[in-house]
């Protein structure tokens, strides 16, 4: 995929952001069919401007993939949740955030569906997924050292199972009209997470709030 560096000026970054937003809307409307000309028409600009910021169709689609995963990292993976109890408790919170992120990001169903059939997109998505899986594996290893997860669990396989399940379940949920309640999806996915790391699914239940004694 051809890539062009992100602009250094605030105006350039704003223009690039707007073009990405328009491209995402075009992808949703067309089921993943994205062309520089159609994005330019939807944005009310000349095609050369889209080309200047992304270089090619591959560059534009690649930027959409990176943008999705960058925002997923910021909203879900990079959140420091260690203060929220055990591994099971804070990872249940992370899962809830992940599901709700996808529910507010309808582009996910296009990314994990029609666009995934493009070899270049599949290659780039695979690279980003590998990073997500390794983050999950590191989290599992830390929990094993603390004695919160069984040492017999393979962190890499468990991490792949956790994100793989989310990817497929979210694709199924979001392509339905209407989609199922987020709470139902969270329950299905949490049971998969619990099975992957060999813990009781009830282990991720929120801690009861301490009662405040009144004088």
What descriptive keywords fit this protein?
elongated, 215 residues, mainly alpha, Tetracycline Repressor, domain 2, 9 helices
Please provide a written account of the structure:
The protein is built from 9 helices and no strands. By secondary structure, it is mostly helical. It has a domain at 65-203: Orthogonal Bundle (Tetracycline Repressor, domain 2). α2 (36-43) packs across α3, α4 packs antiparallel against α5 (87-103) and α7 (119-145) crosses α8 (155-174). The chain is elongated. The termini are far apart. Mean pLDDT is 90; it is low at 208-212.
CATH architecture of the domain at 65-203: Orthogonal Bundle
CATH class of the domain at 65-203: Mainly Alpha
The largest pleated sheet is described as: none
Instruction: Count helical runs.
Output: 9
Q: Percent helix among the residues?
A: 55-70%
Termini separation comes to 67 Å
- Class per helix and strand makeup: mainly alpha
In percent terms, what proportion of residues is strand?
Answer: under 5%
Number of DSSP-assigned strands: 0
Taking pLDDT < 50 over at least 5 consecutive residues as the criterion, the unreliable ranges are 208-212
- Please tell me the overall pLDDT: 90
Form type: elongated
Order of helices and strands: HHHHHHHHH
Short description:
The protein is mostly helical.
Topology record:
Elements: H1 10-30, H2 36-43, H3 47-54, H4 57-77, H5 87-103, H6 107-111, H7 119-145, H8 155-174, H9 182-197
């Amino acid at each position: 995929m051809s890539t062009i560096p992100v602009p250094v000026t605030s105006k350039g970054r704003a223009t690039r952001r707007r073009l990405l937003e328009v491209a995402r809307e075009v992808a949703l409307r067309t089921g993943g069919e994205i062309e520089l000309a159609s994005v330019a028409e939807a944005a009310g600009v000349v095609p050369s401007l889209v080309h200047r910021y992304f270089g090619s169709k591959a560059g534009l689609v690649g930027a959409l993939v990176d943008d999705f995963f960058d925002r997923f990292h910021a909203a879900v993976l990079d959140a420091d949740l260690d203060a929220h109890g055990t591994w099971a408790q804070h990872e249940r919170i992370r899962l809830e955030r992940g599901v709700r992120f996808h529910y507010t990001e309808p582009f996910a169903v296009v990314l994990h569906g029609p666009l995934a059939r493009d070899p270049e997109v599949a290659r780039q998505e695979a690279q980003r997924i590998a990073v997500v899986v390794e983050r999950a594996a590191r989290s599992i290893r830390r929990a094993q050292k603390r004695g919160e997860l069984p040492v017999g669990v393979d962190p890499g396989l468990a991490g792949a199972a956790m994100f793989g399940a989310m990817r497929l379940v979210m694709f199924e949920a979001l392509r339905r009209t209407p989609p199922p309640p987020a709470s139902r999806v969270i329950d299905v996915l949490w049971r998969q997470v619990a099975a992957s790391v060999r813990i009781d699914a009830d282990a991720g239940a929120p801690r009861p709030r301490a009662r405040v004694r009144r004088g």
